[in-house]
Amino acid sequence: MRFFKMNIRFLKTTDNVTKLRRISASVEHYFLKKKRVLITVPSETAATYLDDFLWKQPKEGFLPHSVSTQACSDEIVITTKQENLNQAEILINLCSEFSPIAGQFKTVFELWDETNALRREQSEKKFKAYEASGMKVELFRC
């Protein structure tokens, strides 16, 4: 297991379209840099939805990926497990809780989700938990 000096980046989202756009852009950015990405999701339903979405994005093509609960060597993996299945350097945590495996990644992306009051509260709790752990936390509002 590798441990990195990491950055936690919260991406502000105010609606579901923006949320999907930010996820897709982040995955594509690191895919083009040939960096492995792990995306943790809260449920199989969320995994299926994101899987379908990434096969259609970007519009000019798609982002090759897999959905897995076992170790694999794919560049982009969507999972419900809190394990670094593909030895990724980049984590996109779409779960409502602070990621217990964040320390295994160079960069962790979280959503600062303002689609409703509950999601904003969850975002605030995660932000504070990362700060309390001594991690460098940034909020991107653009």
UniProtKB/TrEMBL annotation:
It comes from the Bacteria. Gene3D superfamilies: DNA polymerase III subunit chi. One of its GO terms (molecular function) is DNA binding. InterPro entries: DNA_pol3_chi (IPR007459), PolIII_chi_sf (IPR036768). Its EC number is 2.7.7.7. It is an enzyme of class 2 (transferase). GO terms for biological process: DNA replication; positive regulation of DNA-templated DNA replication initiation. Keywords: Nucleotidyltransferase, Transferase. This is DNA polymerase III, chi subunit. It comes from Waddlia chondrophila (strain ATCC VR-1470 / WSU 86-1044).
